[in-house]
Amino acid sequence: MKQQAIPVDMISRFDVTESIDVIKQQLVDEGYTIEATDELIAAIRKQRYNKKVNKAIAVIAVGLMLLFAGFFCTICFHNTTLNYQISLYGFTSLGITLVFIGMIMIFG
What distance in Å separates the CA atoms of residue 77 and residue 88, rounded to the nearest whole number? Predict the structure, then answer.
């Protein structure tokens, strides 16, 4: 049985969409210790979480930009004859929806 620790750069060897149980079983079959496999599994989980959080932050950023655009357009078009209802309700609704989707991606 191999006693050395699994190098963290070994993460790239595994498909990130593969199940954690499948990866763990492959490592055990290769002769790595349970402690070493747990270390690698923790690194894989951290990598997956970081990818998920980065996507969620991008969605939240787009939502915040839409919220700001809606606010800015509402303030600018309020005293004009232009219809500001689209920016007031459309941008705000879409922006807050994207912010909530991003938060669900992080916490859910």
Answer: 10
The answer to whether residue 1 is domain-embedded is: no
- Answer for the pair 56, 103: CB distance below 8 angstroms, yes or no: yes
Record the tokens describing residue 69, joined without a space.
Answer: 């655009």
- How many domains does the structure of the chain reveal? 1
Give me the domain span that covers residue 95: 8-107
The whole-number average pLDDT for the span 67-86 is 84
* Tens-digit pLDDT profile for residues 31-64: 888 888 888 888 888 888 999 999 999 999 999 9
Angstrom distance (rounded) from CA 14 to CA 104:
27
In a domain? residue 75:
yes
